[in-house]
Design brief:
five-stranded mixed beta sheet; single chain; alpha+beta; seven-stranded mixed beta sheet; 456 residues
Protein backbone atom coordinates (compact mmCIF):
# COMPACT_ATOMS: atom_id res chain seq x y z
CA UNK A 1 0.00 0.00 0.00
CA UNK A 2 1.30 3.45 -0.92
CA UNK A 3 1.62 5.81 2.04
CA UNK A 4 2.86 9.38 2.13
CA UNK A 5 5.66 8.31 4.49
CA UNK A 6 6.91 5.76 1.95
CA UNK A 7 6.84 8.35 -0.82
CA UNK A 8 8.60 11.03 1.23
CA UNK A 9 11.25 8.62 2.53
CA UNK A 10 12.01 7.39 -0.99
CA UNK A 11 12.19 10.97 -2.25
CA UNK A 12 14.71 11.94 0.41
CA UNK A 13 16.90 8.83 0.00
CA UNK A 14 17.00 8.99 -3.81
CA UNK A 15 17.56 12.70 -4.43
CA UNK A 16 14.01 13.50 -5.51
CA UNK A 17 12.73 15.93 -2.86
CA UNK A 18 14.41 17.28 0.30
CA UNK A 19 13.07 19.30 3.22
CA UNK A 20 13.71 23.00 2.57
CA UNK A 21 16.57 24.48 4.67
CA UNK A 22 17.04 21.05 6.24
CA UNK A 23 20.38 21.79 7.99
CA UNK A 24 18.54 24.54 9.92
CA UNK A 25 15.69 22.18 10.86
CA UNK A 26 13.70 23.31 7.84
CA UNK A 27 11.03 25.92 7.20
CA UNK A 28 7.49 24.61 7.43
CA UNK A 29 5.86 23.64 4.15
CA UNK A 30 8.89 24.32 1.95
CA UNK A 31 10.62 21.68 -0.16
CA UNK A 32 13.69 21.51 -2.41
CA UNK A 33 13.74 19.36 -5.54
CA UNK A 34 16.94 17.31 -5.72
CA UNK A 35 18.98 16.23 -8.78
CA UNK A 36 16.50 13.50 -9.74
CA UNK A 37 13.37 15.39 -8.70
CA UNK A 38 14.13 18.56 -10.63
CA UNK A 39 14.45 16.51 -13.83
CA UNK A 40 11.14 14.73 -13.24
CA UNK A 41 9.39 18.02 -12.48
CA UNK A 42 10.91 19.72 -15.53
CA UNK A 43 9.81 16.79 -17.69
CA UNK A 44 6.27 17.13 -16.33
CA UNK A 45 6.28 20.82 -17.23
CA UNK A 46 7.66 20.07 -20.71
CA UNK A 47 4.93 17.46 -21.28
CA UNK A 48 2.27 19.95 -20.16
CA UNK A 49 3.67 22.74 -22.35
CA UNK A 50 3.77 20.43 -25.37
CA UNK A 51 0.17 19.32 -24.78
CA UNK A 52 -1.39 22.72 -24.05
CA UNK A 53 0.78 25.08 -26.12
CA UNK A 54 2.51 23.29 -29.00
CA UNK A 55 -0.39 20.92 -29.70
CA UNK A 56 -3.18 23.39 -28.87
CA UNK A 57 -4.36 25.61 -31.71
CA UNK A 58 -3.98 29.38 -31.19
CA UNK A 59 -2.36 29.21 -27.76
CA UNK A 60 0.54 31.51 -26.85
CA UNK A 61 3.04 31.21 -24.02
CA UNK A 62 3.82 33.83 -21.39
CA UNK A 63 6.17 34.35 -18.46
CA UNK A 64 4.78 37.23 -16.41
CA UNK A 65 6.53 38.96 -13.48
CA UNK A 66 5.94 37.69 -9.94
CA UNK A 67 5.74 41.26 -8.56
CA UNK A 68 2.88 43.25 -10.07
CA UNK A 69 1.34 46.67 -9.60
CA UNK A 70 -0.74 46.48 -6.37
CA UNK A 71 -3.78 47.71 -8.31
CA UNK A 72 -3.84 44.32 -10.04
CA UNK A 73 -4.77 42.71 -6.72
CA UNK A 74 -7.37 45.38 -6.00
CA UNK A 75 -9.02 44.66 -9.34
CA UNK A 76 -8.91 40.89 -8.78
CA UNK A 77 -10.41 41.25 -5.29
CA UNK A 78 -7.47 39.64 -3.49
CA UNK A 79 -6.58 42.59 -1.24
CA UNK A 80 -10.15 42.81 0.02
CA UNK A 81 -11.08 39.17 0.57
CA UNK A 82 -8.17 36.75 0.12
CA UNK A 83 -7.92 35.26 3.61
CA UNK A 84 -8.44 32.08 5.63
CA UNK A 85 -10.31 31.51 8.94
CA UNK A 86 -7.62 30.47 11.42
CA UNK A 87 -7.35 29.59 15.10
CA UNK A 88 -4.33 29.20 17.38
CA UNK A 89 -4.07 26.44 19.96
CA UNK A 90 -3.08 28.15 23.22
CA UNK A 91 -1.61 24.91 24.57
CA UNK A 92 0.84 23.80 21.85
CA UNK A 93 0.98 27.09 19.89
CA UNK A 94 0.04 25.51 16.54
CA UNK A 95 -2.20 27.28 14.05
CA UNK A 96 -5.12 25.63 12.25
CA UNK A 97 -7.72 26.50 9.63
CA UNK A 98 -11.15 26.39 11.22
CA UNK A 99 -12.78 25.02 8.06
CA UNK A 100 -10.24 22.17 7.92
CA UNK A 101 -10.93 21.27 11.56
CA UNK A 102 -14.66 21.04 10.78
CA UNK A 103 -14.15 19.08 7.55
CA UNK A 104 -11.88 16.54 9.28
CA UNK A 105 -14.41 16.13 12.12
CA UNK A 106 -17.30 15.73 9.67
CA UNK A 107 -15.39 13.10 7.68
CA UNK A 108 -14.70 11.05 10.83
CA UNK A 109 -18.35 11.27 11.90
CA UNK A 110 -19.79 10.68 8.44
CA UNK A 111 -21.52 14.08 8.39
CA UNK A 112 -22.42 16.00 5.24
CA UNK A 113 -21.50 19.64 5.89
CA UNK A 114 -20.92 22.48 3.42
CA UNK A 115 -18.23 24.39 5.31
CA UNK A 116 -17.80 26.88 2.45
CA UNK A 117 -21.28 28.23 3.18
CA UNK A 118 -20.61 28.80 6.91
CA UNK A 119 -19.82 32.20 8.42
CA UNK A 120 -17.03 32.65 10.99
CA UNK A 121 -19.66 32.72 13.73
CA UNK A 122 -21.25 29.48 12.50
CA UNK A 123 -17.86 27.74 12.31
CA UNK A 124 -16.97 28.93 15.82
CA UNK A 125 -20.28 27.62 17.19
CA UNK A 126 -19.86 24.26 15.44
CA UNK A 127 -16.36 23.81 16.90
CA UNK A 128 -17.58 24.74 20.39
CA UNK A 129 -20.76 22.64 20.25
CA UNK A 130 -18.95 19.53 18.99
CA UNK A 131 -15.99 19.85 21.34
CA UNK A 132 -13.46 19.73 18.46
CA UNK A 133 -9.91 19.47 19.81
CA UNK A 134 -6.48 20.43 18.53
CA UNK A 135 -5.22 17.64 16.22
CA UNK A 136 -1.68 18.25 17.46
CA UNK A 137 -2.00 18.10 21.25
CA UNK A 138 -5.56 16.81 21.74
CA UNK A 139 -6.65 19.71 23.94
CA UNK A 140 -9.41 22.26 23.37
CA UNK A 141 -8.13 25.73 24.05
CA UNK A 142 -8.35 27.75 20.85
CA UNK A 143 -8.25 31.47 20.22
CA UNK A 144 -11.34 32.87 18.45
CA UNK A 145 -11.43 32.56 14.65
CA UNK A 146 -9.55 35.32 12.86
CA UNK A 147 -9.14 35.99 9.15
CA UNK A 148 -5.47 35.74 8.10
CA UNK A 149 -4.33 37.32 4.84
CA UNK A 150 -2.93 34.78 2.41
CA UNK A 151 -0.79 37.19 0.37
CA UNK A 152 2.86 37.74 1.29
CA UNK A 153 3.73 41.42 1.54
CA UNK A 154 7.07 43.07 0.81
CA UNK A 155 8.15 46.67 0.19
CA UNK A 156 9.67 48.28 -2.86
CA UNK A 157 12.66 50.61 -2.47
CA UNK A 158 15.69 50.93 -0.19
CA UNK A 159 14.46 53.36 2.47
CA UNK A 160 13.86 51.65 5.82
CA UNK A 161 10.44 53.22 6.41
CA UNK A 162 9.28 52.81 2.81
CA UNK A 163 5.51 52.25 2.71
CA UNK A 164 5.32 51.23 -0.95
CA UNK A 165 3.82 47.75 -0.40
CA UNK A 166 3.88 45.11 -3.14
CA UNK A 167 2.81 41.48 -2.99
CA UNK A 168 4.21 38.14 -4.02
CA UNK A 169 1.54 36.93 -6.42
CA UNK A 170 -0.88 34.38 -4.90
CA UNK A 171 -1.76 33.04 -8.38
CA UNK A 172 -0.34 33.28 -11.88
CA UNK A 173 -3.66 33.89 -13.65
CA UNK A 174 -3.62 37.68 -13.33
CA UNK A 175 -0.46 37.80 -15.44
CA UNK A 176 -2.42 36.27 -18.30
CA UNK A 177 -5.35 38.65 -17.87
CA UNK A 178 -3.31 41.88 -17.72
CA UNK A 179 -1.40 40.78 -20.84
CA UNK A 180 -4.54 39.99 -22.84
CA UNK A 181 -4.17 43.15 -24.94
CA UNK A 182 -0.41 42.69 -25.47
CA UNK A 183 -0.73 39.11 -26.66
CA UNK A 184 -3.79 39.78 -28.82
CA UNK A 185 -2.11 42.77 -30.51
CA UNK A 186 1.41 41.40 -31.04
CA UNK A 187 0.33 37.92 -32.15
CA UNK A 188 -2.64 39.23 -34.19
CA UNK A 189 -4.67 36.67 -32.26
CA UNK A 190 -8.30 36.08 -33.13
CA UNK A 191 -10.84 34.96 -30.53
CA UNK A 192 -10.93 32.15 -29.50
CA UNK A 193 -7.27 32.04 -28.42
CA UNK A 194 -5.39 30.97 -25.30
CA UNK A 195 -2.57 32.22 -23.09
CA UNK A 196 -0.55 29.64 -21.16
CA UNK A 197 1.94 30.13 -18.36
CA UNK A 198 4.03 28.13 -15.89
CA UNK A 199 5.22 30.07 -12.87
CA UNK A 200 5.67 30.43 -9.14
CA UNK A 201 2.94 31.60 -6.76
CA UNK A 202 2.95 32.13 -2.99
CA UNK A 203 0.32 31.79 -0.27
CA UNK A 204 0.73 32.41 3.44
CA UNK A 205 -1.41 29.49 4.54
CA UNK A 206 -1.40 26.69 7.06
CA UNK A 207 -0.57 23.22 5.76
CA UNK A 208 -1.99 20.06 7.37
CA UNK A 209 1.00 17.99 6.27
CA UNK A 210 0.66 15.59 3.32
CA UNK A 211 4.19 16.24 2.05
CA UNK A 212 4.21 18.58 -0.99
CA UNK A 213 0.44 18.68 -1.50
CA UNK A 214 -0.05 22.15 0.01
CA UNK A 215 2.92 24.50 0.33
CA UNK A 216 3.53 28.22 0.80
CA UNK A 217 5.56 28.37 -2.44
CA UNK A 218 4.32 26.42 -5.42
CA UNK A 219 4.27 26.33 -9.21
CA UNK A 220 1.16 26.64 -11.34
CA UNK A 221 0.54 25.58 -14.94
CA UNK A 222 -2.39 27.50 -16.37
CA UNK A 223 -4.22 28.02 -19.63
CA UNK A 224 -6.73 30.84 -20.08
CA UNK A 225 -9.01 30.58 -23.12
CA UNK A 226 -10.58 33.84 -24.34
CA UNK A 227 -13.78 33.18 -26.28
CA UNK A 228 -17.30 34.38 -27.13
CA UNK A 229 -19.95 33.85 -24.49
CA UNK A 230 -22.15 31.69 -26.73
CA UNK A 231 -19.22 29.28 -27.32
CA UNK A 232 -17.92 29.26 -23.75
CA UNK A 233 -19.80 26.25 -22.34
CA UNK A 234 -18.70 24.05 -25.24
CA UNK A 235 -15.10 25.09 -24.56
CA UNK A 236 -15.59 24.47 -20.83
CA UNK A 237 -16.62 20.88 -21.52
CA UNK A 238 -13.82 20.49 -24.06
CA UNK A 239 -11.22 21.56 -21.49
CA UNK A 240 -12.63 19.21 -18.89
CA UNK A 241 -11.87 16.40 -21.34
CA UNK A 242 -8.47 17.86 -22.33
CA UNK A 243 -7.46 18.07 -18.67
CA UNK A 244 -8.31 14.41 -18.05
CA UNK A 245 -6.77 13.23 -21.33
CA UNK A 246 -3.48 14.94 -20.46
CA UNK A 247 -3.29 13.12 -17.13
CA UNK A 248 -3.95 9.80 -18.82
CA UNK A 249 -1.33 10.55 -21.48
CA UNK A 250 1.44 10.77 -18.86
CA UNK A 251 0.45 7.49 -17.25
CA UNK A 252 -1.92 8.46 -14.41
CA UNK A 253 -4.32 5.57 -13.76
CA UNK A 254 -7.94 6.39 -14.68
CA UNK A 255 -9.30 4.62 -11.56
CA UNK A 256 -7.46 7.19 -9.43
CA UNK A 257 -9.07 10.19 -11.16
CA UNK A 258 -12.58 11.64 -10.94
CA UNK A 259 -14.46 14.86 -11.72
CA UNK A 260 -15.92 16.84 -8.82
CA UNK A 261 -18.26 19.72 -9.65
CA UNK A 262 -18.12 22.66 -7.26
CA UNK A 263 -21.09 22.84 -4.88
CA UNK A 264 -20.44 26.52 -4.19
CA UNK A 265 -19.40 28.83 -7.00
CA UNK A 266 -17.46 32.07 -6.82
CA UNK A 267 -19.74 35.04 -7.47
CA UNK A 268 -18.31 35.52 -10.98
CA UNK A 269 -18.29 31.85 -12.02
CA UNK A 270 -20.87 30.19 -14.26
CA UNK A 271 -19.58 26.68 -13.47
CA UNK A 272 -16.48 25.04 -12.06
CA UNK A 273 -15.09 21.55 -11.74
CA UNK A 274 -12.07 19.87 -10.16
CA UNK A 275 -10.30 16.74 -11.22
CA UNK A 276 -9.42 14.90 -8.05
CA UNK A 277 -6.69 12.30 -7.55
CA UNK A 278 -6.92 9.56 -4.96
CA UNK A 279 -3.76 10.42 -2.99
CA UNK A 280 -2.72 8.33 0.04
CA UNK A 281 -4.70 10.80 2.21
CA UNK A 282 -7.81 10.37 0.05
CA UNK A 283 -9.52 12.12 -2.85
CA UNK A 284 -8.13 15.65 -3.17
CA UNK A 285 -8.05 18.40 -5.79
CA UNK A 286 -5.42 18.00 -8.50
CA UNK A 287 -6.58 20.63 -10.97
CA UNK A 288 -9.52 22.87 -11.75
CA UNK A 289 -11.50 23.97 -14.80
CA UNK A 290 -13.46 27.20 -14.33
CA UNK A 291 -15.91 29.22 -16.40
CA UNK A 292 -14.97 32.72 -15.20
CA UNK A 293 -17.30 34.72 -17.41
CA UNK A 294 -16.15 38.27 -18.24
CA UNK A 295 -15.26 39.09 -14.62
CA UNK A 296 -11.47 39.27 -14.96
CA UNK A 297 -11.14 41.41 -18.07
CA UNK A 298 -14.05 43.64 -17.02
CA UNK A 299 -12.46 44.33 -13.62
CA UNK A 300 -9.08 45.16 -15.16
CA UNK A 301 -10.85 47.39 -17.67
CA UNK A 302 -12.55 49.22 -14.78
CA UNK A 303 -9.45 49.62 -12.59
CA UNK A 304 -6.89 50.36 -15.32
CA UNK A 305 -9.03 52.54 -17.57
CA UNK A 306 -7.85 50.50 -20.57
CA UNK A 307 -10.50 49.05 -22.88
CA UNK A 308 -10.56 45.24 -22.96
CA UNK A 309 -13.03 45.18 -25.84
CA UNK A 310 -12.26 42.82 -28.68
CA UNK A 311 -13.58 43.64 -32.16
CA UNK A 312 -14.48 40.70 -34.36
CA UNK A 313 -12.66 41.28 -37.71
CA UNK A 314 -15.55 39.75 -39.68
CA UNK A 315 -18.70 41.03 -37.96
CA UNK A 316 -17.17 44.17 -36.33
CA UNK A 317 -18.94 43.12 -33.12
CA UNK A 318 -17.26 44.48 -29.96
CA UNK A 319 -17.31 42.58 -26.69
CA UNK A 320 -15.28 41.67 -23.59
CA UNK A 321 -14.22 38.02 -24.07
CA UNK A 322 -15.34 35.29 -21.70
CA UNK A 323 -12.62 33.25 -19.95
CA UNK A 324 -12.47 29.47 -19.54
CA UNK A 325 -9.61 28.61 -17.20
CA UNK A 326 -7.67 25.38 -16.79
CA UNK A 327 -5.22 25.32 -13.86
CA UNK A 328 -3.03 22.61 -12.32
CA UNK A 329 -0.27 22.72 -9.73
CA UNK A 330 3.06 21.33 -10.97
CA UNK A 331 3.91 20.22 -7.42
CA UNK A 332 0.57 18.49 -6.87
CA UNK A 333 0.88 16.81 -10.24
CA UNK A 334 4.41 15.66 -9.42
CA UNK A 335 3.14 14.19 -6.15
CA UNK A 336 0.34 12.40 -8.01
CA UNK A 337 2.86 11.08 -10.56
CA UNK A 338 5.07 9.70 -7.78
CA UNK A 339 2.16 8.10 -5.91
CA UNK A 340 0.79 6.68 -9.16
CA UNK A 341 4.18 5.16 -10.11
CA UNK A 342 5.15 3.64 -6.74
CA UNK A 343 4.94 -0.14 -6.31
CA UNK A 344 6.41 -2.72 -3.94
CA UNK A 345 6.89 -6.13 -5.58
CA UNK A 346 7.59 -9.34 -3.70
CA UNK A 347 10.27 -11.37 -5.48
CA UNK A 348 11.31 -14.98 -5.18
CA UNK A 349 13.27 -15.64 -2.02
CA UNK A 350 11.28 -13.13 0.01
CA UNK A 351 13.03 -10.02 -1.34
CA UNK A 352 11.01 -6.86 -2.04
CA UNK A 353 11.61 -4.60 -5.01
CA UNK A 354 10.52 -0.95 -4.93
CA UNK A 355 9.91 0.29 -8.45
CA UNK A 356 8.66 3.59 -9.81
CA UNK A 357 6.70 2.97 -13.02
CA UNK A 358 7.24 6.47 -14.40
CA UNK A 359 6.21 7.20 -17.96
CA UNK A 360 9.50 7.21 -19.95
CA UNK A 361 9.08 10.87 -20.95
CA UNK A 362 8.88 11.87 -17.26
CA UNK A 363 11.77 9.77 -15.92
CA UNK A 364 14.94 11.61 -14.92
CA UNK A 365 17.26 9.24 -16.78
CA UNK A 366 16.04 7.35 -19.82
CA UNK A 367 18.87 4.82 -19.66
CA UNK A 368 21.45 3.86 -17.02
CA UNK A 369 24.78 2.47 -18.25
CA UNK A 370 26.19 -0.21 -15.96
CA UNK A 371 29.52 -1.99 -16.54
CA UNK A 372 29.36 -5.56 -15.26
CA UNK A 373 32.81 -5.13 -13.73
CA UNK A 374 35.01 -2.07 -13.17
CA UNK A 375 37.61 -3.29 -15.66
CA UNK A 376 34.94 -2.71 -18.32
CA UNK A 377 34.62 0.96 -17.40
CA UNK A 378 36.46 2.31 -20.44
CA UNK A 379 34.06 0.64 -22.86
CA UNK A 380 31.08 1.52 -20.68
CA UNK A 381 32.03 5.20 -20.60
CA UNK A 382 32.35 5.14 -24.38
CA UNK A 383 28.81 3.73 -24.63
CA UNK A 384 27.54 6.24 -22.07
CA UNK A 385 28.94 9.18 -24.06
CA UNK A 386 27.24 7.96 -27.23
CA UNK A 387 23.86 7.36 -25.59
CA UNK A 388 23.97 10.68 -23.71
CA UNK A 389 24.05 12.53 -27.05
CA UNK A 390 20.50 11.35 -27.65
CA UNK A 391 18.83 11.37 -24.20
CA UNK A 392 19.78 11.94 -20.58
CA UNK A 393 21.62 8.94 -19.11
CA UNK A 394 23.10 7.85 -15.80
CA UNK A 395 26.34 5.96 -15.22
CA UNK A 396 26.86 3.70 -12.21
CA UNK A 397 29.68 1.25 -11.46
CA UNK A 398 29.42 1.12 -7.65
CA UNK A 399 28.23 -2.10 -5.98
CA UNK A 400 26.81 -5.35 -7.33
CA UNK A 401 24.82 -5.29 -10.56
CA UNK A 402 21.68 -6.29 -8.62
CA UNK A 403 21.97 -3.32 -6.26
CA UNK A 404 22.53 -0.99 -9.18
CA UNK A 405 19.39 -2.30 -10.89
CA UNK A 406 17.44 -1.65 -7.67
CA UNK A 407 18.71 1.92 -7.41
CA UNK A 408 17.56 2.66 -10.96
CA UNK A 409 14.19 0.94 -10.33
CA UNK A 410 13.60 3.22 -7.34
CA UNK A 411 14.04 6.42 -9.35
CA UNK A 412 12.06 5.13 -12.33
CA UNK A 413 14.79 4.72 -14.97
CA UNK A 414 13.00 2.78 -17.75
CA UNK A 415 16.03 0.87 -19.04
CA UNK A 416 19.47 -0.27 -17.95
CA UNK A 417 22.25 -1.07 -20.41
CA UNK A 418 24.77 -3.58 -19.08
CA UNK A 419 28.26 -3.68 -20.57
CA UNK A 420 29.87 -7.13 -20.37
CA UNK A 421 32.77 -8.96 -22.02
CA UNK A 422 30.67 -9.83 -25.08
CA UNK A 423 30.38 -6.07 -25.68
CA UNK A 424 34.12 -5.97 -26.32
CA UNK A 425 33.74 -8.66 -28.96
CA UNK A 426 30.60 -7.68 -30.90
CA UNK A 427 29.56 -4.23 -29.60
CA UNK A 428 26.24 -5.53 -28.25
CA UNK A 429 24.81 -4.77 -24.81
CA UNK A 430 22.09 -6.18 -22.56
CA UNK A 431 18.99 -3.95 -22.35
CA UNK A 432 16.97 -4.52 -19.15
CA UNK A 433 13.34 -3.40 -18.90
CA UNK A 434 12.45 -1.75 -15.57
CA UNK A 435 8.86 -2.97 -15.41
CA UNK A 436 9.24 -6.57 -16.58
CA UNK A 437 12.95 -7.08 -15.68
CA UNK A 438 13.28 -8.86 -19.02
CA UNK A 439 16.66 -8.60 -20.77
CA UNK A 440 17.41 -8.43 -24.48
CA UNK A 441 20.65 -8.35 -26.45
CA UNK A 442 20.94 -5.33 -28.77
CA UNK A 443 23.48 -3.17 -30.53
CA UNK A 444 23.97 0.35 -29.23
CA UNK A 445 22.30 1.72 -32.40
CA UNK A 446 19.27 -0.46 -31.76
CA UNK A 447 19.09 0.81 -28.18
CA UNK A 448 19.13 4.43 -29.39
CA UNK A 449 16.38 3.83 -31.96
CA UNK A 450 14.27 1.83 -29.49
CA UNK A 451 14.37 4.47 -26.73
CA UNK A 452 13.93 7.44 -29.07
CA UNK A 453 10.77 5.85 -30.49
CA UNK A 454 9.38 5.55 -26.96
CA UNK A 455 10.04 9.23 -26.29
CA UNK A 456 8.27 10.57 -29.39
Amino acid sequence: MVTMDKISNLCKSRGIIFQGSEIYDGLGNTWDYGPVGVEIKNNIKKAWWKYFVYNNKSTYGLDAAILMNPKVWEASGHTASFSDPKMDCKECKTRHRADNLIEDYAKKKGLQINVDAMTDEEMQKFIDDNDIKCPNCGKKNFTPIRQFKLMFETSRGTVADNKDIVYLRPETAQGEFVNFLNVQRTMRAKVPFGIAQIGKAFRNEITPGNFTYRTIEFEQMEHQLFCKEDESFAFYNEYKKKALDFLLSIGIKQDFLRYKDHDKLAHYAKCACDIQYNYPMGWSELNGIHHRGTWDLSRHQEFSGKSMLYMDPITNEKYVPTVVEYSIGADRLMLAVLCNAYEEQELEGGDTRVVMHLHPTLACYKVAVLPLQKNLSEKALEMYAELNKHFYCDYDEAGSIGKRYRRQDEIGTPYCVTIDFDTLENNTVTLRDRDTMEQKRMTIEEVINFVENLLK
